[in-house]
Amino acid sequence: MSGRGPPWGYASSDAGTAIEHTAVCQLRGRASGPPIVKRVYTPMPITHPRKVTRDMPATKGKQMAKDLKPGERVDSYFSVAYKKPVAEYRYGHMFEVRVADNSGQLTVKYWGDEDRDSVQKLYSSFDKDDVIRVSGEAADYRNQVEVSVSKKNGGTLTKVAEGGYDVSELVPTVDDLPGKRERLLAFVGTVEEPHMRALLESFFMEEAFISRFSTTPASIQLHSAAIGGLMHHTLNVVDTALEIVRQHPELDKDLVITGALLHDIGKVRSFRVTTHINHTPEGNLVGHIVIGDEELMSHVAEVEGFPEDLAMKLRHILLSHHGKREWGSPVDPMTPEALAVHEADDTDAKVEYMIARRRDAVTEDDWIWDGRLGRIIYLR
Is 36 a residue whose pLDDT tops 70? Predict the structure, then answer.
């Protein structure tokens, strides 16, 4: 599964529509209802019916994004994923910030007054990748929690200096990375075909590469979105692919293992981790499949006598591992080994994603609709 493309966003690109809908939901005291698409903005901020005052005690400790509930007072720090420019609304100026911690992401909206300069100054006081302390009130917008910050509800946004936060609370880390690294190298050692064995060693026996591979995420939000997520996902894909080989011994086992180990190598150059996970410019503009093909062929060229037909089969596995052209692969799987790697990759990504959706669902219902999978998910 690809890690590309955030799963959030407004149904319309019109910021006015989003502001209008949020305000009406708060006025109605409920979280659902059709979007309002009038061109006149509703005055903001409008607080939740539960009274919020300045003398309410701030919550102690780190509040996690996924645990916030509508109407709850928020006082915690988050990393800045991106900012939207200052915009005008009926009573002044506002801006929107997407923030994150190791439990997920949420939107923060700052509602300022008519003094645009003061709002712009606050907006410019922090940048992407900075950490900010958010004080405000959680609200519900289209079944997603967001935080409203304004003078009226006693809210503030403040940049947190380096050392004033715990990075482990902002970016999740996979357990037992040293043990997973040993397992990966053990898989390399099982490959008997000499050229593929040399190829794998050219990647994973190079300390600089395996160190980066060991700390790279597999995605931003979809699956294995953590430091070490790529290692975790890759091992799962190898395990699943080997089960397919066990059931179908006609497959070229060495080719399947090598393809499974290398299928996502392009992600090493596609993601970066600071105070949160993000794409590199190359990851966005080129994509991990194309980058992976480039990395593969450059390493193949360094292995003396690497068979051309074998290189083509490996290249095909990497280029087809998303399974369909509409899913990002330039070609569909045309060999059983390529199909085995694709199915193993797709299964791990989708199962982990569905587990996460069930785990993180904030609802009293037994079901939620998931637009990415195009189906409802049973939560019990």
Answer: no
